[in-house]
């Protein structure tokens, strides 16, 4: 296992700390784990597995929000609300996306990522997944646009990826050179949108 040192390692640690601090901003600190920001900032390095290299040339042309909306409607009976901060996105190479999912799951142990109800729950897992994907692409020289990785809210009628059925849930949606995929960021389960059991229960899609 290699250590990520220097500015990128610090940026990664700072990004995680910010995401976790944001997650607990509205929660009572008495019964939830709150990161010690000063302790994190003082660490010279955090032992992390090396991330997959981003190769801009391997990515497909930009994908418009209209194209993404059309593919969603072709695969889902429901018409989830689309929330987007850009009109087009970079479509990552599918092999990179698969490698990134495996890398993100490996972060659980060194960064002590674990589900904490209301403090670091499913939507915070998903947002961290999205933020780190963008950070790795930017570090790799991708400046055309954000990569096409977002998160969705869904009525979790059927179990998927090790998460039991019931209630609302949040997970990742990503478009790759092989189409749209749903990813459970807590376990790494990944399936094409057309085979995701709760695809007709999607409520919001955030890119």
Written account of the structure:
- The structure is a single chain.
- The chain is an alpha+beta fold.
- It contains 6 helices and 10 strands.
- The protein has helices at residues 6-23, 37-42, 65-75, 94-106, 108-111, 122-139, and strands at residues 3-4, 46-47, 60-64, 81-83, 88-91, 149-155, 168-176, 179-183, 190-192, 202-206.
- The strands form 3 sheets. A 6-stranded mixed sheet has the order 4-10-6-7-8-9. Strands 1-2 form a two-stranded antiparallel sheet. It has a two-stranded antiparallel sheet with strand order 3-5.
- Helix 1 (6-23) packs antiparallel against helix 6.
User: What's the alpha carbon Rg, rounded to whole Å?
Assistant: 17 Å
Q: How far from one another are the termini?
A: 32 Å
Secondary structural class? alpha+beta
Mean pLDDT: 78
Fraction in helix:
25-40%
Write a short abstract of this structure:
By secondary structure, this protein is an alpha+beta fold. Strand 8 (179-183) and strand 9 form a beta hairpin. It is globular.
Short key terms for the protein model shown above:
22% strand; alpha+beta; 34% helix; single chain; disordered N terminus; two-stranded antiparallel ribbon; 6-stranded mixed β-sheet; globular; Beta Polymerase, domain 2; 207 residues
Topology, please?
Elements: E1 3-4, H1 6-23, H2 37-42, E2 46-47, E3 60-64, H3 65-75, E4 81-83, E5 88-91, H4 94-106, H5 108-111, H6 122-139, E6 149-155, E7 168-176, E8 179-183, E9 190-192, E10 202-206
Parallel strand pairs: 4-10
Antiparallel strand pairs: 1-2, 3-5, 6-7, 6-10, 7-8, 8-9
Helix pairs in contact: 1-6
